[in-house]
Predict the structure.
Amino acid sequence: MAKRQFKYVGHSVPRVDGVDKVTGKAKFVGDIVVPGMLYGKILRSPYPHARIRAIDPTEAEALPGVVAVLTAADIDDLNPIYNGRPIIAMHKVRYVGEPVAAVAALDLATAEEALGLIQVDYEELPTVVGIDAAVKKDAPLIHEEKGSNIGTHEQVRRGDADEGFTQSDEVVEDTFTFPMVYHYAMEPHSVIAHYDDNDEITVWSSAQHPFQVRSDISKIFKVPPSKVRLIINYLGGGYGSKSYTKFEPLALALARKAKQPVRICNSVGESMITVRRHGARVRIRTGVKRDGTIMAREAEIYLDTGGYDDNGPQVTARSATRVLGPYWIPNIRTDAYQVYTNTGSAGSYRAIGAPQVIFAGESQIEILAAKLGMDPAELRMKNLLKTGQELRPGLKGIDANLTSSLKSLIRESGWKKSRKKKNAAVGMGCAITNAGATPVSVAMIRMQSDGIANIAAGSTEMGQGVRTTLTQIAAEELTLPMEQFRMLGADTKVTPYDSSTGSSRSTTLMGTAVQKAARDLKQQFVKIGAQILSVKPRQIQVIDGALISGEARLTFKEAFERRFGKGAGGEMIGRGEAGPEITDHKLPVFWEVGMGTAEVEIDHETGEVKLKKFISVADVGKAIHPEHCIAQEEGAAMQGIGHTFFEQLIYDNGQLINPNLVDYRIPTFDDVPEEFHTVLVENGDGPGPFGVRGMAEGGILSVAPSVCNAIDRATSVRIKDLPLTPERVWRALRDAKK
Amino acid sequence: MAKRQFKYVGHSVPRVDGVDKVTGKAKFVGDIVVPGMLYGKILRSPYPHARIRAIDPTEAEALPGVVAVLTAADIDDLNPIYNGRPIIAMHKVRYVGEPVAAVAALDLATAEEALGLIQVDYEELPTVVGIDAAVKKDAPLIHEEKGSNIGTHEQVRRGDADEGFTQSDEVVEDTFTFPMVYHYAMEPHSVIAHYDDNDEITVWSSAQHPFQVRSDISKIFKVPPSKVRLIINYLGGGYGSKSYTKFEPLALALARKAKQPVRICNSVGESMITVRRHGARVRIRTGVKRDGTIMAREAEIYLDTGGYDDNGPQVTARSATRVLGPYWIPNIRTDAYQVYTNTGSAGSYRAIGAPQVIFAGESQIEILAAKLGMDPAELRMKNLLKTGQELRPGLKGIDANLTSSLKSLIRESGWKKSRKKKNAAVGMGCAITNAGATPVSVAMIRMQSDGIANIAAGSTEMGQGVRTTLTQIAAEELTLPMEQFRMLGADTKVTPYDSSTGSSRSTTLMGTAVQKAARDLKQQFVKIGAQILSVKPRQIQVIDGALISGEARLTFKEAFERRFGKGAGGEMIGRGEAGPEITDHKLPVFWEVGMGTAEVEIDHETGEVKLKKFISVADVGKAIHPEHCIAQEEGAAMQGIGHTFFEQLIYDNGQLINPNLVDYRIPTFDDVPEEFHTVLVENGDGPGPFGVRGMAEGGILSVAPSVCNAIDRATSVRIKDLPLTPERVWRALRDAKK
């Protein structure tokens, strides 16, 4: 690939939404006041498992200022189930916090007061607490009709695992657990819904996937998609917590009844009981030859999915693959089970289904390396998948040079030197994930007569900088300054179809669509220029927004005016699509790569472990905006630090007992490692524009295993349960001494 | 042109908005309730000409329920002038009805009550009444800074008119007058405006030209066009009364102050004092050779434009050309003057500037024919412009076969037979107009994964059937049933740029854009099909929404799914543009043709004239929807019947004294001629899709001259002033007897 000089791409340009955000002009759902808007609150179940005998909203309805009270009786005419859950509890509640009723009132205080006036008659049912209790033979059933508390069961098979273990010289088996954790986006999920008297629906939401929400609402409310409009301005962070449809249908059903727009903003506590990452228990067994060749892996993964599906089936499916690590394993037998319990539903969270199983797999790699007396980096290198090799049957071969990433990590982290120190507290973690992106994104660039090019792209801006990145791509292709572009916010009535903003997909897929739209528009200018300058299109060079042929020069603006007439208005539309052809109809669109090393300091008196140094490697293909890439990788690592050291939603018999920042500890700036460094690998081999590959999830993967590996290396104490609270570490160290 | 079989085009299919309209589901601005909406009323000047010394809104502001009172003091920060008028009167009022203040209140009754509480201190100024008074040397000035009461002065010159008259055998000179008339659209102009706290502007309006209103608002309120959104759902008739920007800026300034959306719906009376057709006085002189060859024409046109410009300059400019008729005239000298008077502003009205001058010109043609003893049809035929001939310098040559239209008229009306009867009350009128369409229209067709194709076209539906016609064009090109399309209403945030809906332009220009968008989309399907079926694109035939090659058949839906993946969503976008290339960069885009004959019955006792038979010819190139074409032509003729027989806004010293249906008589079904027939000429020679040429304005042109010619033919009494009230006719007949 010839080295190309880029003007916008590859440069850490100012964010296009930066000024609006720092000046407070950027509007989040909680800032938006739609005229005539009511304030909504949700009445939530206080019981983890109960039958609803009756609900009486009369008293609440009579409270002055209350406009509508919604209960299951109001949704008879709808298709109420989506993602395995009802809009609002029908007959039964399955977790503490499940919506049972909702109130729309003139102000929030009245709505809150009204909640207390709704009479609900519950019949308590036995609570299913945790994975073990859920999968017991005679466990109470959370979904009676399913016949068991197991939802999805996903398997991956290759070769003969038993035979593989037989051929192995060393076989180890361990069980790891991973806590339920909360995303802690700055903004809890928020929705404004309006159902007008013409069955036209408008929803402002902090949803990551507007088109999927549109589709769900269309089905639930039985209106064509063209009558459903999702407007997503900004999200105050997502990380998967706002993936798929959340309580948009509830807010809409309430607005429909109230005949006025209603805004519902979750509190942090409400978010914590309604969305989280799956807790997990992973039994994993790996066999290796004496030379380090991995012969077989078996895994049994139980994921605590909570009361309803949400995205649990997909998380489960993904975990069964992701547990394999970035290695060639000839014999595979993995089983992943989605387990219902009486807790809030787990959904998507950065690298769905991966941290839980990669913690297990990458811990075990170093257990094996110790047994073999090998440098664990060497053991990894030996088994790393080569480019083109298949991780498992049915998926596209590896599209990245993993060896190059691992070499970078070894070099940049000073791995070899640190290994030479005896009992140095250093450890490593390596992972890849099959990015779950559906490769369908469509974009337009609509150039106006004032020279402004509106980029119509349905990707949602949640802090990741997608508006900036897409603008860079468009600017580079059209050779126009960034200032000449406007990113239209995601709006299903305005921006073309995009399957989602998640799975690290936007730069690769929407980026491709935008790049094609820009090229399409540029080509139109070239055609106009060729006609005006009487040359062939290929004789025209496009430089800095002008069409150049020999001495002749025509700006886009001039070409536009020649096209439509001076002062006559007009519009030129470039369109672009990314579809499954982007990776030749084989998923994943790309493999995401995350590798890291940790160096820790252990206080043997208190059990406190400090992450001193963390180096991670992200193979980004091409960094469109290097600072964003680094920020994403570091942000991911910080979330990894969270679940490794502190974070855990603690349930006591179905009651979440720490739904606040005092009792639920998240990383602060104090927890940033003293040495914290991200290496961007840019081999230009990604499927996106300029060779880009999705990133931003990889950084979360290696923290937990590398930290536990470092502790083990320093203390010979292997910890298999997270988070690493001082108490847990202190006990482990004490037990080891015994 | 090979005869092509059409499935949708050329058929009078059901209107796509028909069911919504007859069931009341179609929302007009007056039906739309935006949440939080206030009700606005405008305080209007009671004086035709006065200085405003002071306005005190205090008392009105204090009225419970009043949210905001707008006066000129509130628009200091804006660019307040557009189309020659201020948003709201500043310092001075120039007609009775001029907005002086406006109130937004919780309900209409309060808003109306508040108007009475606003104290305005006026200093009356002398009123300028009528054209004669306005152009007097020492007339009071309506716009002091202009130095006279004449605005635009337009001239057309060719050859030497004086020399032409010298060479003529007969020269006649007459002066004709034409009344001020009102469009009487069913729906008076209505606007909802919302100015949100992020400077985002949304305006729902019954405006015909959303993009022009957007542009004006952008300039007035100093916000970029991308922040201004005009939504035009349906109009209850336009006829030019809703062309350009009306009181949208006023409603918006009021909403901005109220910080809530405000709806203002004009009453009929308010519309009648604020928008109308120009009254006119036309002195016209024509010279012919004995053989009927026209040698010269001179015209002096004075148009009463009212207190402000609105569209007066363009109307004036157009009249100076349109007075020439459809004839080759070697020597031309026409002058048109836009005259300010202290009356409501005149603006666009079906065939701007044409009925006034064509009444004069076509009356005079029959005066000349009588003098020459020629059949007036023969005189016309002799002088008709040939295809390609130039009516006047600077305009495109005639693109229609006028001879064929006149022949059709002569044949279909039984002209020759009726002329044989002595004193038969039959007359004729022939006209062409240079349609004032700016040739810039852009469209998209956005095919969704459910198979629905959204047509994004910014043309406004005002009853003319544009949504149906554009859908027919798209359906024909894409070979898909009409039901599979949805017309997105005009919405500047959604639909691409379109210069206007007016000048009979939409079927020709937006039709072209839609046709190209459809072809573009079809081509994309063909490409996909060719790839899947492994054939060349040209080996694929598109029939009934399927791609056919030999035995192989692939529906669009299947191709779409093959493109993006089954159930994976996606969107395919076809785009199309019509620009000045459509007529090789020369205006007009097309010449519109209107010819007709009238047969009347005269009651000599009462002076009542009844139109018994009216035959008109419209050269439509190709009728996309024949019934719509006929309805348009007949509707235009009915408006012609209105200004010919009844309609006239009567001002008494600046006060409109008949602003209601009792005193301002419009045609009713009783006035429909017994024989009323439209002939559509379809030579396929228009510049639009399938050879279409714009129509719908021509039918208004020939009524007045053909009726007056018929009266003259029957009674030898020439009436040169409209309308033909019984009193006026009776007096004319009586005076002739004297």
